[in-house]
Amino acid sequence: MLAALLLVLAALPFYVDAQVLKIGSWSMAAAVGAIGLTLLVGTAGQLSLAHAFFAAVGAYGYAALADPEGPGWPSVAAAIGGVALAAVAGLLFSPVAARLRGLYLGVASLGLVFIGQHLLKNLSVVTGGVNGRGIVPFEIFGFQLSGASPPFDIVGVPFGAQERLWYLALFSVIVAAVLARGIMVRRPGRAFAMVRDNQAAAAALGIDVQHHKAAAFVVSSAFAGGAGILSGLAYAYLTPQNFGLPLSISFLLMAMIGGLGSVAGAVIGAVIVTATPLLLESYASRAGLLAAGGSGGYDAATVSSILFGVLVVVLIVVEPAGIARLGARAWARVIRPRAF
């Protein structure tokens, strides 16, 4: 089933328009960040509202390192550098993360978002200030994976920027999912879970509690940096408004809706939270079912907020583990052998 799903996703650029591909690329970029947050919140049990800050560090780090008028690094090296910068930012905050937990950690991490907004708006030499800055397309050996150069087509289907970016985002989600799953099922993930469930018992078993709490924050920050880079490539432009508090709340909402601690749930939650308002804006507003943004009435953003609020309440009441657990229960009923 997984192979079939990947095959369908790989074939979509041949059959859907650029608008759908753009929404899909944004959703997959968000999924990378949501995977990192579910690893932090669900597996390690640490609340963070700073994901937008680390996403900004990754995005602006890539843009600065790949800038031809600056260091001019190759895209792959600049992307690795952007992710590394986000991880370093998480490492610098890790002493705080190692000593706090729960709501206190959430409030402390929230301060990073406000600090980040101030820096993004005032470090105009690097960030472009309030107006933002452009971002160099991702390319390998002169072939752009987030641009349209050089032009080419496959079986008569032109592959422009959106088609190429779709495959880059899909590859990134697969890599992020594999890495996160590997962490969860191996010793680090088991240590994270032990620290989450009972810090005293974890310490008694020889687990360095503060070290593992800090490590979880660093790893999650690296995922957020990757998400920021993908988002920047999808938007083709970086502005401080794209990395504010609403983004951090959206990441947390993705993890909660999908199911904390579930990689597949994080991807599902990211698609729901990211794609729903965009699809409503693109199709329902165009059909006259919703008001246009800023014209009064119920626009796509308002309806999406209502839907997400209702969905979170329903999931907390019905299945706190999120959509992933509901899907697993439904699948178990389907494949469960009948008793004779």
Question: What are the key terms here?
Answer:
single chain; 340 residues; mainly alpha; two-stranded antiparallel sheet; 14 helices
Spatial shape: globular
Tell me the strand order in the biggest sheet: 1-6
The end-to-end span amounts to: 28 Å
- Which spans have pLDDT < 50 for at least 5 consecutive residues? none
Give the strand content.
under 5%
Task: Give average pLDDT, whole number.
Answer: 88
Major sheet: size, sense and barrel closure? 2 strands, antiparallel
H and E order: HHHHHHEEEEEHHHHEHHHH
The total of helices stands at 14
What is the helical fraction, as a range of percent?
over 70%
Radius of gyration: 20 Å
- Helical/strand content category: mainly alpha
The count of strands amounts to 6
